[in-house]
TrEMBL record:
<dbReference type="GO" id="GO:0005657">
    <property type="term" value="C:replication fork"/>
</dbReference>
<dbReference type="GO" id="GO:0005789">
    <property type="term" value="C:endoplasmic reticulum membrane"/>
</dbReference>
<feature type="compositionally biased region" description="Polar residues">
    <location>
        <begin position="229"/>
        <end position="256"/>
    </location>
</feature>
<feature type="compositionally biased region" description="Basic and acidic residues">
    <location>
        <begin position="203"/>
        <end position="222"/>
    </location>
</feature>
<dbReference type="GO" id="GO:0061709">
    <property type="term" value="P:reticulophagy"/>
</dbReference>
<dbReference type="GO" id="GO:0106300">
    <property type="term" value="P:protein-DNA covalent cross-linking repair"/>
</dbReference>
<dbReference type="GO" id="GO:0005634">
    <property type="term" value="C:nucleus"/>
</dbReference>
<dbReference type="GO" id="GO:0000421">
    <property type="term" value="C:autophagosome membrane"/>
</dbReference>
<feature type="compositionally biased region" description="Basic and acidic residues">
    <location>
        <begin position="262"/>
        <end position="278"/>
    </location>
</feature>
<protein>
    <submittedName>
        <fullName>Testis expressed 264, ER-phagy receptor</fullName>
    </submittedName>
</protein>
<feature type="region of interest" description="Disordered">
    <location>
        <begin position="203"/>
        <end position="294"/>
    </location>
</feature>
<dbReference type="InterPro" id="IPR011256">
    <property type="entry name" value="Reg_factor_effector_dom_sf"/>
</dbReference>
Length: 330
């Protein structure tokens, strides 16, 4: 019983082991352990003319464009140009151009080939030959080689460029024979930008400028509103000060005319009292009548006049007492 089970399980185990070994061999053959050597030097291609389609979106969706271009020109080399870093730019905004290399160097593409690609909606563009690029190569043996190249080559390219502080962009993938050539130009980078990319960059620049202008306008409006509030507050404070000053002036004006009648009443009262004093003393009556009470202006003059009145009264009383004493002695 046990032997029969082992006999049945052994073929299954061998099949599983063979499948694992096949998968491992396939992955190794695709370039899993291939050494990647990044260098700076001459490009793997010269000046080229390409037929391309522009796409904006995730790079993983570019496979259909490669398949289409290969179906149109199966004997031509394929090319992909990637303009954005998917680690820094959202996937839906990543831009690329995918197509076929129609000619290289001094050779010009045939009119028939141009019309064929244009018939399928492709556009024609030329890239110049540059003297120095950052480049490396990766085996293109299976479909898995493309995925392995993306995950193994690009990190090393980025590290190489950052460590040496190079200005290299965009990134090109050239599928030729059994190799994938990766390169990024160190000069004339703008000549590798297809018109669609330039248009999007102009649009983005215009949008940024409009946003900056809108921000400036908003800031100016806020400043004007703030200054208006300050001026209103200053105007309000000035008006309040003016109103308070006008109130004080009106109060002073209303109080000032009321003072003379009080002086006149006091003067009349004092004149009445002085008249009573003159009736009591005949000798001092004339002096009281000569007083000009209307010339009294302040409280000090009033105080002096009252003191003189009391002094005159005392002198009259003393004179009367002396007269009575003299008459008694006689």
């Amino acid at each position: 019983m046990i032997m029969s089970d082992l006999v049945l399980l052994a073929p299954i185990a061998f099949l599983l082991l063979g499948l694992l070994l096949t998968i491992l061999g396939y992955v190794l053959y695709s370039g899993l352990l291939t050494e990647i050597i990044v260098r700076t030097g001459s490009p793997p291609i010269r000046n080229i003319t390409i037929a391309y389609k522009f796409k904006q979106g995730p790079y993983k969706e570019c496979g259909s464009l490669f398949t289409e271009s290969c179906s149109i020109g199966p004997k031509l080399s394929s090319i992909g140009v990637y303009y954005d870093d998917p680690k820094q730019v959202p996937a839906e905004k990543c831009r690329c151009a995918v197509g076929s290399i129609l000619s290289e160097g001094e050779v010009k593409p045939s009119e028939e080939l141009l019309r064929l690609y244009e018939k399928f909606g492709y556009k024609i563009f030329s890239f110049p030959e540059v003297t120095h690029v950052v480049t490396t190569a990766f085996p293109h043996r299976t479909f898995l080689s493309v995925m392995l190249g993306v995950h193994r080559v690009y990190p090393q390219l980025s590290s190489y460029i950052k460590e040496r502080k190079l200005c290299a962009h965009p990134f090109l993938e050239i599928y030729r024979g059994d190799l994938i050539h990766y390169m990024s130009p160190l000069a004339r980078q703008s000549d590798f930008y297809v018109p669609e990319v330039r248009d999007t960059e102009r649009k983005l620049q215009a949008d940024e400028e409009s946003e900056d202008r809108q921000t400036d306008i908003t800031e100016k409006v806020d400043v004007n509103l703030f200054q208006g509030e300050d001026s209103n507050s200053e105007t309000g404070s000035v008006s309040q000060l003016a109103m308070s000053e006008s109130r004080e002036t009106s109060l002073a004006t209303s109080v000032a005319p009321s003072l003379p009648p009080r002086d006149q009443d006091d003067g009349d009262n004092r004149s009445d009292r002085s008249d009573k004093g003159s009736n009591e003393s005949v000798g001092s009556g004339s002096s009281f009548e000569e007083l000009d009470l209307e010339s009294i202006e302040g409280a000090e003059n009033v105080g002096v006049t009252q003191a003189e009145l009391r002094a005159n009264k005392n002198q009259d009383v003393i004179a009367e007492e002396r007269g009575a004493i003299v008459e008694g002695e006689e």
